[in-house]
Design goal:
The complex is a heterodimer of chains A (331) and B (339). Chain A is an alpha/beta fold. Chain A has two domains: 5-20 and 28-231, P-loop containing nucleotide triphosphate hydrolases (Rossmann fold), CATH 3.40.50; 249-331, no CATH class. Chain A has nine helices and twelve strands. Chain B has an eight-stranded mixed beta sheet, with helices on both faces. In chain B, strands 2-1-4-5 form a four-stranded antiparallel beta sheet, with helices on one face. Classes of the chains: A alpha/beta (331), B alpha/beta (339).
């Protein structure tokens, strides 16, 4: 294991118990994340994109041990984070922090901004009150808040400022990995740019590693070194940024990109490309490609087994899970 | 009436101003808004939250909140001033000749009625059709908005539908009476991109078929480019720029418009060309208590701000060579500039 890796996730699966029993008499469970693998080198950003319900947030929450996993290994800084428990887990938790989507509901309305940033330090232990004060001052400056704003309550800040508090809180324990869960989706466009720039400059300044969850491909393109496209619990495509955006290979990735409205006048969206098919039931074992029902290129072979991520012919590292690799035209 | 009915635009909003009475006094939330809309035309209102896009739409429909009132100007719909129309008259217009769809389809549908009942309600109210006919028409409308198996789904309740399907039902309700104007207030913000593309395609097709004019309220320049012919950029209750979408996006004259276009990461296939830092618009929209002052309200966020920007409200001026492109700015970018 290279010490350059901040995060190494192998064969991660998450399942949620459902009410009732299936036809086989067993308890029903929904497989929200199905055997995904990913790595993030220190100081880099991996983006997981997908539509709502694709499992991207669930996968990230499982990495943070906030959702129990069904299977898989999670290694952070070479530590087997996935198997820790009790005090060892509590201690290790400071290595992962999260920036949440909604800056309104993710801050305690009854704590002053400075105390919100202090809280993780208190739980992490081993810092004196004076040391905490010094860290808080440093973080307020780093995220662009004024020192006197430490005494204010969340409702006295704008949405963008609240997200800055959330970022300061996430940075407080000097985590090895920061999960950014749609960090700008709730913000106005102009404020989005401010927060994205801040996240990037903090990454340069502190060598941060991000796991970036988003449905916005423009934001992902701007922020991420590597991209994983998730659909119904599985990675459909996984590539570095340049290779992915130069030539997205998976029909689902292509459909997602095609659907984004562009400012090029005359370019019409081709959202009609997707087939209006039934979405597979994730409480049942999958027997074929889960995207086949909506895929414009689908044919019989697509229902023969679940496709696994494989290198696109002639490339290393641009991988996709598709039975039809290379057999349909990519635009 | 100075305009004869045949040449008058479908909607002619003239110097519309709206004031709110708050505990702190009277504030001007809409300040001198003018625009016209022709039959079948598509226009977008663009700007950040709190700039008056939705408030303009509500003012058109006579749906201002209780603390708000139209303090000046006219809303001429086919020559009739809606700002002085009676509540009964407005009720006959709303949902019939002017209708609206909202951001969150779940909260705009009534959870205790089937979608068929909710479409039928509009038809019975405005068209006086009987129950059986309203139901048949509801099924047709659900087919028109491409809900599969419409004859069975007409008896579904809103919770049985996906978010995209609910928004389709909202569109069916809004278009039931073949309105002349449809106002779509951030209709796809809560939806996935693939669903958004389908909803936009649907709005374009149905709008063209029924010759319905569409006002799209959005902050997404991509949506503007794909949905509209003209755009009106709003800031702090004022119109700051208006023009043909192609002209405005190619050569935005107002620093705010320019900033709105530049600050969003646009997808490209050549990532080497990407900049590391997005151009920012500093700061945030001012609180409404600052609206209406005799100064450029964008000045605190503007890199070009100079003395005159702080001392007087900029007047609207046409951009040379582009008859329908106008801007309200002391220091607009020239039309030769590109983004």
């Amino acid at each position: 294991m290279s010490d350059k890796l901040a995060l190494d996730v192998q064969n991660l699966s998450v399942s949620f118990p459902m009410r009732g029993r299936g036809a086989d008499g067993r308890r029903r469970a929904l497989l929200a994340v199905d055997n995904v693998n990913f790595l993030i080198a220190r100081g880099k950003t991996l983006g997981i994109v997908g539509e709502s319900g694709s499992g991207k947030t669930t996968a990230a929450m499982a990495v943070a041990r906030l959702v129990p996993k069904l299977a898989g290994n999670i290694t952070i800084d070479g530590i087997d984070f996935g198997t820790l428990d009790n005090e060892a887990l509590r201690q290790a938790r400071q290595r992962i922090q999260i920036i949440f989507q909604d800056p309104y509901s993710s801050l305690n309305p009854r704590l002053r901004a400075g105390e919100i940033v202090r809280e993780p330090l208190v739980y992490a232990g081993e810092t004196s009150r004076a040391e905490q004060d010094r860290i808080i001052d440093e973080l307020f400056e780093a995220v662009g808040l004024r020192p006197e704003q430490k005494a204010l309550f969340p409702h006295q800040f704008s949405g963008g400022q609240r997200q800055r508090i959330g970022i300061a809180r996430a940075l407080s324990t000097r985590p090895s990995l920061i999960i950014c869960d749609e960090p700008v989706s709730a913000l106005d466009v102009a404020v989005q740019a401010q927060i994205l720039n801040l996240l990037k400059s903090l990454q340069g300044q502190f060598g941060l590693t991000y796991l970036f969850i988003s449905h916005d491909l423009g934001v992902v393109q701007h922020m991420c070194d590597d991209i994983a496209v998730m659909y119904m619990g599985q990675f459909m495509e996984y590539a570095d940024r340049k290779s992915f955006f130069a030539a997205p290979r998976h029909p689902y990735s292509q459909a997602l990109l095609d659907a984004v409205p562009t400012i090029d006048i005359g370019a019409q969206p081709t959202g009609g490309k997707l087939v209006d098919g039934e979405i597979p039931d994730l409480t049942l074992p999958q027997t074929g490609c889960r995207f086949a029902s909506r895929c414009p290129h689908a044919r019989d072979v697509c229902n023969g087994g679940v496709p696994q991520l494989q290198d696109w012919p002639g490339s290393t590292g641009h991988r996709l899970a598709c039975h039809l690799t290379g057999t349909f035209a990519t635009s | 009436m100075t305009n004869s009915p045949s040449t008058a635009p479908l909607l002619d909003v003239r110097n519309l101003s709206v004031q709110f009475t708050t505990r702190g006094g009277t504030v001007t939330v809409l300040d001198d808004i003018s625009f016209t809309l022709e039959r079948g035309e598509r226009i977008s209102f663009v700007g950040e939250s709190g700039c008056g896009k939705s408030m303009t739409a509500l003012a058109l429909m006579g749906l201002l909140p209780a603390m708000g009132r139209v303090s000046g100007g006219q809303v001429l719909f086919k020559g009739e001033d809606l700002t002085t129309a009676s509540p009964a008259r407005l009720r006959r217009l709303r949902g019939n000749e002017i209708s609206m769809i909202f951001q969150e389809p779940m909260t705009s549908l009534n959870p205790v009625f089937t979608i068929g009942q909710q479409i039928s309600e509009v038809l019975r109210l405005h068209r006086g059709v009987d129950n059986a006919e309203a139901r048949d028409r509801s099924v047709e409308l659900l087919q028109a908005v491409r809900i599969p198996d419409a004859a069975a789904r007409v008896d579904d309740y809103p919770h049985q539908l996906s978010g995209g399907q609910r928004q389709r039902v909202m569109i069916a309700i809004a278009l039931a009476c073949e309105p002349e104007i449809l106002i779509a207030d951030e209709p796809t913000t809560a939806l996935d991109v693939t669903v958004q593309a389908e909803i936009f395609a649907l709005l374009r097709d149905l709008g063209a078929k029924l010759d319905t004019a569409i006002i799209l309220i959005t902050h997404d320049m991509g949506a503007v480019a794909q949905m509209s012919e003209r755009m009106l950029v709003m800031y702090a209750g004022r119109r700051v720029e208006e023009g043909q979408v192609a002209n405005v996006i190619k050569a935005p004259a107002h620093p705010y418009t320019r900033g709105l276009i530049a600050c969003v990461p646009h997808i490209t296939s050549d990532v080497d060309a990407l900049v590391d830092t997005l151009p920012e618009i500093d700061g945030i929209v001012p609180p409404i208590t600052r609206f209406g002052r005799d100064e450029c309200l964008f000045a605190p966020r503007c890199a070009k701000a100079a003395d005159e920007c702080w001392s007087a409200k900029p007047q609207q001026s046409d951009i040379a060579g582009h008859s329908s492109h106008s801007v309200s700015c002391w220091h607009p970018f020239g039309t030769e500039g590109s983004r």
